[in-house]
Write a structure and sequence with these properties.
- The protein has 179 residues and is mainly alpha-helical.
- The protein has helices spanning 16-29, 36-56, 83-99, 102-114, 126-135, 141-157, 161-178; strands at 60-62, 68-71.
- The protein has a two-stranded antiparallel sheet.
- Helix 1 runs antiparallel to helix 2 and helix 3 (83-99) runs parallel beside helix 6.
Length: 179
Amino acid sequence: GQGELSDYRWRGHPSHHTYSGATRAIGMVYDFIQDETCREEAKQDLAAIGRYAFLDGDMTIRTEDGEVSCTLLLWPPAHIASTRGLMILGELTVIHHATGDPAIKAYMEKTLDRFQIRQKWSKATVAEIGEAFRMDGGLSHDDADHCFGHLYNLLRIETDPELREYYLKFADAMWEVLQ
């Protein structure tokens, strides 16, 4: 922290939800922030997350001692449609939307390929995506909460029709599995 908050430090072990929650929340309000100083701070925070968690860390979060604290994509394998994969795509989309950073855009395209979104999952049915959740060990309400928030951002920001279709099917699959 800075100023009166300078004594506050968090030295715990963050989970993938730490990054998911921050980018999801900032993404929900970013376009509505009227105060330019606040908007710039939000943009800088997103840029820092993008650099640390993706460009420098390649989805691996480390402690100050260099030990792995968590990975943003621990399980399932990248080629299975998953809630963690959707959270990552939501994070990257929001970060790029706010910052316009071409390195984030390139990382996002690499991630879309790694997750086989255009090659496989955008063509999958809602049932096939739902089956992938089962292969992922089920669908937790905690991850679903994060994903529905990311889907709000993704469907508001994303203009690519193929990706939008995938995100809509992903939402339908989550809803069916959760019922």
